[in-house]
Amino acid sequence: MKKLRKNLRLITVFLILLFVLLAGYGAYSVAVYGNRWFSSSANTFARTQKKNVIPGDILDRNGAVLATAQNGKRVYPGDTASRSATVHAVGDSGSNVNNSAENFFASYLYGFNMSFLERLGYALRGEEKHGDAVRLTIDSRLAQYVSSVFPEGMAGAVVVMNYKTGEVLTEQSFPSFDPQNITTAVKQNPLKPFYNRAIQGLYTPGSTFKIVTAASVIENIPSYETLTVTCDGMLQLGQRLITDAGTDMAAGKVTKHGELTLKKAFTVSCNNAFARLALQLGDLKLRKTAERFGFNDNFLFQDMVVENSSYPTSNRTDGEIAWTGAGQSALSASPLHLCMIAACVANDGVMMEPRMLMSAVSPTGYTRATLSSRVYRRPLSTQQAAVLKDYLRAVITSGTGTAANIPGVKVCGKTGSAEIDTQENTNAFFVGFLDDPNTPYALSIVVENAGGGGSVAAPMAKQIFTWMLKNSNAQ
Amino acid sequence: MREKSGKRRPQPGRAMLAAVMLFFFLGFFLLALNDGEWKSFLLAVLVPLIIFIGTAGMSKLFPSDQLLLALTNFLCALGVLVLYRLNPEKGMTQAGNYGVGVACMVACTYVVRYVPRWKWLTVLMMLGSAGLLVLPLVFGRETNGAKNWIYIGNHSLQPSEIVKLALLLCVSWLLSQRRFFPALLFSGMCLGLLMLQKDLGTALLYYGVALILFFAATGSRLLVLCGVAGAGGGAFAGYQMFAHVKRRVAIWLNPWADTQGAGYQIVQSLIAIVNGGFWGVGLGLGNASVIPEYYNDFIFSVILHEFGVIFGLIVLCMYLFIVIRGMMIARRSRTVFHSLLAAGCTAMLALQTFVIIGGNIKLIPLTGVTLPFISYGGTSMVSSLCVIGLLQGVASRNEAGVNEDRELAMQGGGTL
Predict the structure, then answer these.
(1) Most B-contacting residue of A30, A33, A113, A115 (CB-CB within 10 A), to test interface
(2) Considering its fold, how many domains does chain B have in total?
(3) In this structure, is residue A230 part of a structural domain?
(4) Contacts of A7 in chain B (CB under 8 A)
(5) Is A365 part of a structural domain of the chain?
(6) Considering its fold, how many domains does chain A have in total?
(7) Residue B210 buriedness (CB in 10 A; 0-12 / 13-18 / 19+)
(8) Do the Cβ atoms of A16 and B362 come within 8 Å?
């Protein structure tokens, strides 16, 4: 009997633990995923409830009204140009854009977070409920300027963020559309204007990934400063041949860089050298570094839904590993994540979580939520970040990114041109930042099917940085 | 029964009983004001009355655990309330089930209280169980991949719910007689037949309860290890063998891959939960009936939706209290048989609650097990209340034992 009672005690503990597990998991998943579930397009309840509430305004960081309510219905003020510039961040009333402020902050905008007393107040006064005004970190003037710089009719994305705080100043996807006037041409556009490439578009990062490869070399090979790699133009690994930009096998033209240091290889963006470095590092070490930068992580940012980036884990032949080092292979990342990687180098190795909600204020003036900066990860030490910063600076002064150089300003960056089998031209990339604590801005630019990153994206970066330097006082 | 001379012991369930009755009176009254139906007014009186009979009335029949009864009755009535609000017809039926369940509970209590010899009864129950579990295989129709119901005219019946009680009684008795092999054989047979019915959720429950009973009786760690390994192997075999298991696991891993198709149920369940938020949308104001099977598998999500996450946690705590109370009864029992029986009943309720709520919140893959006391369905309601009846039977025997001690102590002049 005594033994039986002892066993029963153990069983009791086990059964109690089951309940603790239920409550713990339930609370955890509601706290972490709750808003994602809520803003899902499958939420029919929220859709019907929205009809009974006057939606709150959406403002940009400077207080400009991006969306408001007229006779209880959603309208987007301004002209076509200003509306299209912010539509992917703000969203549209028809929920064509996924995970925009309109969806993701619906709990504020449509008053779902109202307390019991507030609800009671509305009921007693017999008024229609009024949602909270949401202020975003988005700068609508910057967004308009970026739209004017982006090549007409092309597809791509631009993200600008403050690398010290993680505030997203603009996240734009092209082609864009006017939420107030959605035409059939927009709906039938093969480039899918509703799709938000900045956070949902998964791109092969191309040479911009060399930041990660270089970080892995600096971390794992102590003699990285004196290390040299020889580029002979062609590296045959099984079925895969690694070549550099400018190589044209049919014409018998081969780009050769010869003997290179890590810094030199980075500045000229030599695929061959980075392929060899990746092989020297091995897949495991490179993957570890990439995963510290957020690859293969399930992004659960509080203010934004960002598609997960991936570093391939299966089918790893030498040819694949080598191409990964140069940013090709089955790698993928969103423009926002690429911007975070550049921002991390700029911010001394600290990667901030991207933020988009500045504040949510109820109609009675009660502040329900405010911006708080949060560190996402620390993938680099301060020293490692300083070394990489120096490399990224060299890209602008003497490498592939000279088109982004602004005299007297410390622009740092990395270009990229990713080959896509189905496309005629490469996707043009530029990621970079201003190395100045007074203007802590990082950006990433992707232009699909446009050509080289150095020739297409770098000049755009220069224009955007110039605009930001001129208008930075208001940030 | 309770002797008059003894000091009246405190009854922790009294104040709670009043609160519970008030809660349901107000709940149904609110619904009645909303729809103006006479049925709602009727239930506003009837349900608190059943609760009163089911809780306070019991102590007139036998010494009972009032707290346990009050909690059980709260949960049963909560099921009736939520079902009535979503579907009045189902709510009325469930109120009937509830009444029948309380009667069966009393019957079970009396059986445990007064049956002195279990040997032949056990043999009879074992044979009956085998027969009952074979029935759906012969006469049943397949629904949701499993073949675990039998139909008699317009009525349907899930034999595994009734066999559950036989399993608890037989295995406890056999183990208390240290007849391990017959116990193993009987639980193995039940498990095998359930696997044949492809009712894997219930099979999992039986398995867990049998394992816990064997552990309680023997205290063998090796047994637990073998048992867990066996469960793992069984789960893997089930995964490989049954297409509907594979499908359910895939849905569990990522229901968001197909929110309108395969993942619809669980996605709507999760969305309903977050729509409710902390305080719920309010009784009668939700739309949780968009979840298929809202009245059965997903009723806990409906409760979270309309009453909120905090209330959901409270309901979870109520189950937890029932479990703790049940284990206390088991530890206080005087005989091995009663102790094992109470532990088995408690483990059955706990595991069943865990399996279905875990499925609702995507902690584990969803299995078609009912939520004890709350889910819609006559068999489920009756069997859950019968389990409580068995527990009460053990509790009443404990009480009788305590009273005997007291009498002996008084006669001998000693103290307790």
Answers:
(1) A30
(2) 1
(3) yes
(4) 215-217, 219
(5) no
(6) 2
(7) buried
(8) no
The pLDDT, as a whole number, for residue B136 is: 81
At residue B158, what is the residue type?
Q
| Structural domain range at position B234 | 118-412
**Any domain includes A180:** no
Residues on chain A bordering chain B, Cβ-to-Cβ distance under 8 angstroms: 1, 3-12, 14-16, 18-19, 21-23, 25-27, 29-30, 33-35, 37-38, 40-46, 48, 112-113, 116
The pLDDT > 70 percentage for chain B reads: 94
Going across the sheet that includes A411-418, the strands are A168-174, A156-162, A441-447, A427-434, A411-418
ipTM: 0.91
Contact A319, A238 (CB under 8 A): yes
d(CA B412, CA B410): 5
Most B CBs within 10 A among A4, A6, A110, A308, hence the mutation to make, goes to A4
Q: How many CA atoms lie within 13 A of B200 on its CB side?
A: 20
Give me the half-sphere count of Cα atoms (radius 13 Å) on the Cβ side of residue B234. Answer: 18
Please check whether residue B331 lies inside any domain of the structure: yes
Q: Write down the H helix ranges in A242-355.
A: 262-267, 271-281, 283-292, 318-325, 335-346
pLDDT digits (tens, 9 = 90+) for A417-465: 988 888 888 999 999 999 999 999 999 999 999 988 899 999 999 999 9
Residue A110's pLDDT is: 87
pLDDT at B236: 87
Can you give the residue range of the structural domain that contains A263? 206-355+371-474
Measured between beta carbons, the chain B residues lying within 8 angstroms of A35 are: 274
- Which residues in chain A land under pLDDT 70? 473-475
Find the mean pLDDT for residues B344-353.
96
Chain A residues within an 8 Å CB radius of B292: none
**In the structure, what pLDDT confidence band is assigned to residue B250 with cuts at 50, 70 and 90?**
confident
Q: Is A243 exposed, middle or buried (0-12, 13-18, 19+ CB in 10 A)?
A: middle
* Closest chain A CA to residue B280: A116
DSSP-assigned beta bridge partners for residue A136: A357
Using a CB-CB distance cutoff of 8 angstroms, which residues of chain A are in contact with residue B270? 33, 37
Nearest CA in chain B to A23: B313
Alpha helices in A326-407 (DSSP H): 335-346, 382-398
Predicted local confidence at residue A158, as pLDDT: 97
Residue of A11, A29, A40 with shortest CB distance to B347 = A11
Q: Are B286 and A60 in contact (CB under 8 A)?
A: no
In a domain, B125, yes or no: yes
Question: Who among B287, B316, B323 is closest to A44 (CB)?
Answer: B287
CA distance A159 to chain B (A): 27
Assigned domain for A169 exists: no
Q: Is residue B215 part of a domain?
A: yes
Q: Which residues of A touch B350 (CB under 8 A)?
A: 15, 18-19
Contact at CB, A16 and B323, closer than 8 angstroms: yes
Taking only the tens place, the pLDDT of each residue in B385-407 is 999 999 999 999 988 888 887 78
Does residue B26 fall inside a structural domain?
no
